[in-house]
Amino acid sequence: MTEGPAQFDRYRRQTILREFGVESQQKLAASRAVIVGVGALGCASADLLARAGVGTLTLVDRDVVELTNLQRQCLFDESDAIERRPKAEAAASRLSRVNSSIRIEPHVLDVTSRTLPRLLREAKPDVLIDGTDNAGTRYLLNDAAVRDTIPFVYGGVIGTRGMQMTILPDASPCLRCVFEEPPAPGTMPTCDTTGVLGAAVAIVAGCQAADAIKVLIGRRDLIKPTLLEFDLWSSERRRIDLSSMCNATARRNCPCCGKHSFEFLDGKHDDDAIKLCGQLAVQIGSTGRECDLDRAAERLREFTPKRVSPSLLRVSLAGERAESSGSLELSLFADGRAIVAGTADPARARGVYAKYVGA
Ligand SMILES: [Zn+2]
Question: Residue 288: what pLDDT?
Fold first, then answer.
């Protein structure tokens, strides 16, 4: 479809909004958003932004669609899961049928300190949206957003709860102002060990998309420095006011936006996933953070993990197909290392580690 009155007709319910108007629609059409992680949150915010008419959407994900994704990842269907299509490509193909007048660029990519700078140089985002499932990538995005002054829309969901916060570098606190360090490996629940309620995804992605739109139409003044928390099961809502952290003096001790030490972007926390020679296995090198094996065993209990020794926990991940036969096997060491057996693909191993161990 081509640009023209018909295209703006498509957006009529949005342009007649008093808060929005035709001029905002034109700004949106000229804007670029990058969504890192096209899982539950990434699908939902990409869907909202594509329908709203964001001119260029870059969708980035390293993973493929699985049947267990369909409960909450709204851009995929059963045929995507059967074919195990890359999420970025499946989402792009679905959204290009929803809105053919915008550009959608899928990248099947593992976002690391090595790949992120080039991605951002090429995509030149006006806003960066968090659809990731792990703290390491999230802190990496926070570093890049602060360094390059790109508005960064954080969102997270787990269980029945969700959180959302929008970071306007130089004007509001960053992720590390609020949560200085990422959680140690194995200490936090993940969607794959705890589960996640689809409705919690929708509310967080809705907040993310609304803030992204405000940024893209030049209404940053509407974005409040707050951390929003929702529990969809207890119906509790919390709004934590962060306005006291907006001036530079209050943020001077933040390693990222205060001291400009971009450790995640500099690769100091890289996990160094390497294929093990002669084996169908990948080692995720120590990130320098110890893994609490007792807590990891508790989180992974549905897979009946085996405590091989005080320093080693091993678990067979039913549902994660190995490249040879059977399921992937994860060995977790107390020093923070892990070995994923059954794959030779470092990106897949890193994904499996993030899904089941976290951080
Ligand atoms: Zn900060």
Answer: 62
